[in-house]
Amino acid sequence: xxxxxxxxxxxxxxxxxxxxxxxxxxxxxxxxxxxxxxxxxxxxxxxxxxxxxxxxxxxxxxxxxxxxxxxxxxxxxxxxxxxxxxxxxxxxxxxxxxxxxxxxxxxxxxxxxxxxxxxxxxxxxxxxxxxxxxxxxxxxxxxxxxxxxxxxxxxxxxxxxxxxxxxxxxxxxxxxxxxxxxxxxxxxxxxxxxxxxxxxxxxxxxxxxxxxxxxxxxxxxxxxxxxxxxxxxxxxxxxxxxxxxxxxxxxxxxxxxxxxxxxxxxxxxxxxxxxxxxxxxxxxxxxxxxxxxxxxxxxxxxxxxxxxxxxxxxxxxxxxxxxxxxxxxxxxxxxxxxxxxxxxxxxxxxxxxxxxxxxxxxxxxxxxxxxxxxxxxxxxxxxxxxxxxxxxxxxxxxxxxxxxxxxxxxxxxxxxxxxxxxxxxxxxxxxxxxxxxxxxxxxxxxxxxxxxxxxxxxxxxxxxxxxxxxxxxxxxxxxxxxxxxxxxxxxxxxxxxxxxxxxxxxxxxxxxxxxxxxxxxxxxxxxxxxxxxxxxxxxxxxxxxxxxxxxxxxxxxxxxxxxxxxxxxxxxxxxxxxxxxxxxxxxxxxxxxxxxxxxxxxxxxxxxxxxxxxxxxxxxxxxxxxxxxxxxxxxxxxxxxxxxxxxxxxxxxxxxxxxxxxxxxxxxxxxxxxxxxxxxxxx
Length: 683
Known about the structure:
With 683 residues, the protein is α/β, with parallel strands linked by helices. It contains 34 helices and twelve strands.
């Protein structure tokens, strides 16, 4: 049976710190004076960054000469040496560090507090200066390795005092990054890119980190700004960006390079650098297009996968890149492969399922998306990212009550510190999605409250503004809706829908001419679909502008083969404009395209009746009535045809049908009386 100390030592090695703390607490309760357990407790305190408490244990265990105490002594010496050095460098003093260094046995130290910021660059003249300025005044050394710039990148780096190196690009990011490390002289390496800046509030946290050489490196939160101006959506992840300079610590992987594997191979623990942040601007759409980042990433990942086809990290990264490119079918294939290969303990496991479900939802494969979320849950990966996609899948499947219940669960979830993904889901996107579910349930005022909460976080969110505008429109608040539609009318995603919403607001507010103008502009701009045409035609009808209405029908005829209902309406417009022959052609063609179109028969019959072609008109009315026998108006006009043709019995039957359907129909009653009188006179 394993001894408590061995169990605790294994938990430390596996970085299971909470379990280790619980095991230590239990073991020390049984044997409080055991120096081996005390030294393991001190080791845990070092990892909890409580070096002063660990120092007290070192004092209390002077009788021990175990390897654990020797290691503790070494780590304490390195820590207090780095603290004292940092204090001197910043123009202050750390008397506690100096005092404790004096108590510890004198020995050489290998750690220090100098930090080298290492960058690899190519044609970064637009971005580089901002990055380097965020490092000025606190970083000890800047190393810039250029991979073939043709702009002023190198000159800017030299002007900022950087150590500049050159590297011949070979489609391998790790090789270039390792070249930058080779030029560095600091005790620690800060890995940063030209399109990033260190948040000024992070400097003190970085200084706290570099005096703790018991760690091999730190996970640093990266806030990826996805908007063009650095605002809007954010995507967060936390790679190792600050690490000790060591000859065996080097980057691996050609693309999406990683430093953590080599640190872990040395048995050095990693820690999260809470309170620090690097802001990344390189995902702005214009930057992505200019540098063709997505296609380059996909190309390099496909090369990696040819060499390591079963490595889940490559499939995951490919799914991510394809998602950015909007290539949903390929993204779902790559994400599925990642999910099939990934371990449950991988830090990106739940995000892989999120990418899978998202890509499936985007393709309309919502049932598969829901099942992917269920699969994630069975693997213990049911976090806020997966829950959000489950809400979306349920909503798209029409299970609105289920979507609302899942939305409640999603809103109760937090954002785990180690989670990678779209941070906007936590801050406001789950509120937007809940609002959309409520809107579909016709709980419009509740939906607006959710949208307002989301807008408090991101006031310019186009999807939120548009969603709220739709709710206001359905509540009849057309002016308020129009104001929001106007704010999103130029947005690349919802601009067309917002512009149409503005036209509908004009139409419902009695501004038919403005609506017609706006809808015609949209049609001319290429937004040609059935819904827009219907609104355009309605707006033209309300203005009474028959010429414009005819133009609209002519445009639709150029765009598609007209259905019978279109031909009927076009014929009515032609008839109103006095063009009876073309109207006749429209109605006749409508009866051919849809032999069951009642309005086509009746409108054609009306036109022939007015032309005095009573027999043909009667035949058309009869055709319409066979399809719609309860149409009182059709019976009345058929009766009139029969009367004009002198078929009194037929007219009498038709008028009687009218009165059966509409007993108060005055015209039918009058005409029936006249017919009956004529029949009696003839008798």
